[in-house]
């Protein structure tokens, strides 16, 4: 698919609804996402509703997992952010990885949808998380929102994540893609 392909709400809903859940937790996350998404008039505009969708990717390479230290939040995160108008969540994840690391991806996989509430912003975020395999674990070009980055072992990355759902997403990546591919569900989970 071309990154410039536009998406409408029905296409995105169909993509998420078509994901086969790997367990009860993921089934619940998909159902929560669809219920919240259906209530949105402008799901790609972070200011149009107290609910919005984001895209991020857990980036893996030969050197491990790359995380950023966010300037404002002072926590370690995977690359990600808001979806621009006309983007799908996977396109946003690809753009964010490029903007925040400068790394090129060779493969991208669907992992999970994580709904959570940001009380200080009175916002429900529906975070669509992907796994990105990069061509090489080379130098990272930081975006303006980050103080530094580190390539970490999976265990060290698990320790750096603040949010339990980020840790679970990384565990899902390690489990699903432990052989470097998704096995029997490769055709379902692999975006490119």
**Beta-strand percentage?**
25-35%
Q: What's the rounded overall pLDDT mean?
A: 88
Query: What coarse outline follows from CA principal-axis ratios?
Result: globular
Largest sheet: 7 strands, mixed
Query: What is the string of helix and strand elements?
Result: HHEEEEHEEEHHH
How many individual β-strands? Answer: 7
How large is the count of helical segments? 6
Descriptive account of the structure:
The chain has 192 residues and is an alpha+beta fold. Helices cover 32% and strands 29% of the residues. The chain contains six helices and seven strands. It has helices spanning 9-17, 24-38, 89-101, 154-160, 164-176, 186-189, and strands spanning 51-61, 64-70, 76-77, 80-82, 105-118, 123-134, 146-152. Strands 1, 2, 3, 4, 5, 6 and 7 form a seven-stranded mixed beta sheet that branches. Strand 2 and strand 3 (76-77) form a beta hairpin. The longest helix is centred in the first third of the chain and has 15 residues, at 24-38. The relative contact order is 0.19. Mean pLDDT is 88; it is low at 1-5.
């Amino acid at each position: 698919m071309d990154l410039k392909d536009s998406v409408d709400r029905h296409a995105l809903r169909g993509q998420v609804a078509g994901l086969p859940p790997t367990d009860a937790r993921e089934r619940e996350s998909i159902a929560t996402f669809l219920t919240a998404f259906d209530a949105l008039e402008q799901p790609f505009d972070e200011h149009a509703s107290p609910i919005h969708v984001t895209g991020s990717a857990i980036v893996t390479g030969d050197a491990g997992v790359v995380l950023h230290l966010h300037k404002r939040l002072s926590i370690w995160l995977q690359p990600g952010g808001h979806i621009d108008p006309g983007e799908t969540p996977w396109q946003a994840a690809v753009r964010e990885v490029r903007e925040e690391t400068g790394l090129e991806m060779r493969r991208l996989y669907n992992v999970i949808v994580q709904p959570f509430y940001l009380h200080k912003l009175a916002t429900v975020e529906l975070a669509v998380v992907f796994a990105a395999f990069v061509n090489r674990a080379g130098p990272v070009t930081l975006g303006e929102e980050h103080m530094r980055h580190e390539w970490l072992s999976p265990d060290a990355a698990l320790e750096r994540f603040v949010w339990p759902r980020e840790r679970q997403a990384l565990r899902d990546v390690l489990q699903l893609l432990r052989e470097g591919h998704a096995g029997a569900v490769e055709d379902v989970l692999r975006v490119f």
